């Protein structure tokens, strides 16, 4: 069982007040807070261990390189990837998916080819594919969620046709909390010879993930949602896809030799990591993932499961609130609108006055908002350090907003 008092004590920001009230931070879907060990690792790296990586023959450069490179192994362990050379370090999911779009998809796709997407994708897993639509005439094929926000894997499998060159799908919706059975999709797609990219930005935070078991071709994660620094992240690329992929960004580090007439490249994964990387951010991410693994992903998932059910019951009791996404095993992410009342931004402003931080808007999911028939929602998204008391604080603040606007 998760020791909630210890966990909360590990995150210094949680003890501050906002607007004279104890902070209730429920905007974890946007970005999570950082434990002291991550903050300390950043300070130590800059205070005592900093130099550029892969470049020098001096002590600090070697130390920095060692710490930075060790994170590749930590990420592989965290994601259940046996071969760490299949992990490309980057600044986050947006960079990872763009790398696949430019380096792997663009050279392989032609007018009329198709990419299958779900309607609940984040813009980071939509806009790079729109580039292929605009520039190369690739068609985007959308699969809808049902009324509960569930995505039937069979509907995704059925959408794969002879022209499909890629399935790009989220593992867990950042708006609905819906979990997607990506393994079933990957098994079927592999039989049809179609690679699958999984956006793991949200799933990797809330549940144990084993990429080798899922059997996908690409799996993207982003460090700042994983209690690590912003500007850190990684993408798993299966070695067969890596062999097919062109470098997306050119520069130092990713080359073997450069002359006036020719260039040859470093071995993968370095071939796909150009320029000075986010050294300290990546080191911080490694510490964050170790922290999560020490707590235990099963333990985190069980704690958040309890919060999810508790919050679902409480929110269901507010008959003037419409909650989007009601699958029974959903993650503790709740998007809602207040019937006949204020705009999501006004509700979040009232909540903020009570110290409750939520996000309001489209959550970078334009097609999902269209599908749900809403212009915006408020989103309360929970993390391992949240408590049932904080669910109660959210409900109290919502009741206040309802009194004011309802
Ligand atoms: N995919 C999902 C599901 C997300 O929730 C997010 C961030 O909100 C992203 C992708 C983009 O992540 P980043 O902005 O860190 O690249």
From TrEMBL:
Pfam families annotated for this entry? Answer: Aminotran_5
Q: Which InterPro entries match?
A: Aminotrans_V_dom, Aminotrans_V_PyrdxlP_BS, Cys_dSase_SufS, Cysteine_dSase, PyrdxlP-dep_Trfase, PyrdxlP-dep_Trfase_major, PyrdxlP-dep_Trfase_small
Database matches in SUPFAM superfamilies: PLP-dependent transferases (SSF53383)
Give the Gene Ontology MF terms in alphabetical order. cysteine desulfurase activity; pyridoxal phosphate binding
The answer to whether keyword Transferase applies is yes
**EC numbers, comma separated:** 2.8.1.7
Describe the location of the Aminotransferase class V domain by residue ranges.
24-394
Coiled-coil portions: none
Q: Does the keyword Transferase apply?
A: yes
Enzyme class per UniProt: transferase
Q: Name the family the entry cites.
A: Belongs to the class-V pyridoxal-phosphate-dependent aminotransferase family. Csd subfamily.
Functional description taken from the UniProt entry: Catalyzes the removal of elemental sulfur atoms from cysteine to produce alanine. Seems to participate in the biosynthesis of the nitrogenase metalloclusters by providing the inorganic sulfur required for the Fe-S core formation. Catalyzes the removal of elemental sulfur and selenium atoms from L-cysteine, L-cystine, L-selenocysteine, and L-selenocystine to produce L-alanine.
Q: What is this protein called?
A: Cysteine desulfurase
- From which organism does this entry originate? Roseovarius gahaiensis
């Amino acid at each position: 069982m998760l020791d909630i008092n210890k966990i909360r004590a590990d995150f210094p920001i949680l003890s501050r007040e906002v607007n004279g009230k104890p902070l209730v931070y429920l905007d974890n879907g946007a970005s999570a807070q950082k434990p002291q060990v991550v903050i300390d690792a950043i300070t130590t790296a800059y205070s005592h261990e900093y130099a550029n990586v892969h470049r020098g023959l001096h002590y600090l450069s070697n130390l920095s390189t060692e710490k930075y490179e060790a994170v590749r192994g930590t990420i592989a362990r965290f994601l259940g990837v046996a071969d760490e050379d299949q992990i490309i370090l980057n600044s986050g999911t947006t960079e990872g998916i763009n790398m696949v779009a430019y380096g792997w998809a663009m050279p392989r796709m032609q007018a009329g080819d198709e990419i299958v997407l779900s309607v609940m994708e984040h813009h980071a897993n939509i806009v790079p594919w729109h580039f292929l639509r605009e520039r190369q005439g690739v068609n985007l094929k959308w699969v809808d969620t049902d009324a509960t926000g569930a995505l039937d894997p069979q509907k995704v499998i059925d959408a794969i046709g002879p022209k499909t060159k890629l399935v790009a799908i989220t593992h867990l919706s950042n708006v609905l909390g819906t979990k997607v059975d990506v393994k079933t999709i990957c098994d079927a797609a592999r039989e049809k010879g179609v690679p699958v990219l999984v956006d793991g930005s949200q799933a990797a935070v809330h549940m144990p993930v084993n990429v080798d078991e899922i059997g996908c071709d690409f799996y993207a994660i982003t460090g700042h949602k994983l209690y690590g620094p912003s500007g850190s992240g990684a993408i798993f690329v299966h070695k067969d896809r890596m062999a097919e992929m062109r470098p997306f960004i050119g520069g130092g580090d990713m080359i073997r030799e450069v002359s006036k007439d020719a260039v040859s490249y470093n071995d993968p994964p370095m071939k796909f990591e150009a320029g000075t990387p986010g050294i300290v951010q990546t080191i911080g991410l490694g510490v964050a993932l170790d922290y999560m693994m020490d707590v235990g992903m099963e333990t985190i998932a069980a704690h958040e499961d309890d919060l999810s059910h508790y919050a679902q019951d409480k929110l269901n009791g507010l008959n003037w609130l419409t909650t989007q996404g009601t699958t029974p095993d959903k993650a503790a992410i709740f998007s809602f609108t207040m019937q006949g009342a204020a705009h999501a931004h006004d509700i979040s402003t009232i909540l903020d006055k009570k110290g409750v931080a939520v996000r309001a808007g489209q959550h970078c999911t334009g097609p999902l908002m269209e599908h749900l028939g809403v212009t915006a929602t408020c989103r309360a998204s929970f993390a391992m350090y949240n408590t049932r008391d904080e669910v109660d604080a959210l409900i109290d603040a919502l009741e206040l907003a309802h009194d004011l606007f309802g």
